[in-house]
Amino acid sequence: MLTELRRQRILSLLKEYEMVTLTELTDSLNVSESTIRRDLQFMEDHGLLLRVHGGAKKVNTLNVEANMNEKSQVNVEGKIAIAKYAASLVQPNEIIYLDAGTTTFQMIPFLPTDVQLKVVTNSVKHAAQLSDYQIETIILGGNVKLSTQASTGVTTSEQLQHYRFDQAFIGINGIDLHAGFTTPDIEEAHLKRIGLKNSARPFILADATKFQTINFVQVAPVHAAEIITDHCPSDIRKRLSLHTTIKEVTL
After folding, report:
1. 200 lies in the same domain as 81
2. What is the pTM of this model?
3. Given pLDDT bands bounded at 50, 70 and 90, which one contains residue 231?
4. Number of domains in the chain
């Protein structure tokens, strides 16, 4: 069997079964284990699958984004730990950007309220909460995406282009060494990209569920921001650490 056809067959098996073992692949494709290992290494290097002990599993690729209520119920403790640490990095007199997202929203109660601070956000929900805490807030205008309660579109991005930040805290849907930081929505990806670029110190806030997940649109390569997470598997951390800084935190 030709190499390309064999690798297509591996992808088809992963699509059907989510995970396959080396034995299953050697039996199905009638090739040696060493050949399968080379295939899996090549395919992992190109972001097509994730190697695991004794086989491989499908890379989780998402094109549809859950709404804010759904996402807010996932790994709450981890998100709070990330948010608390991220908020501790904010210094007096800084101007920061808070991207729309459930983890960045959790930062707000931990932000300092006894110092001068200015927060820019594209989230309607974030802006209301920041106002409740008496924190100076600028909300970006534009079309509000109902599922995430975030301003998006040309008006939003043009406004954001003019701002510069001491720090930016960006939520993300997926992190993969080869695919980078990814998200399902083109317009939101553009805003996240601007937020990272226009910040002196950009951060990606991502709980453990975001690693080895690939979404439709790349926001930036992994070297574009530091990562704050509640957990990153050791093998993934080892590879990502060659390109960026990863901070693991717990409550």
Report:
1. yes
2. 0.75
3. very high
4. 2
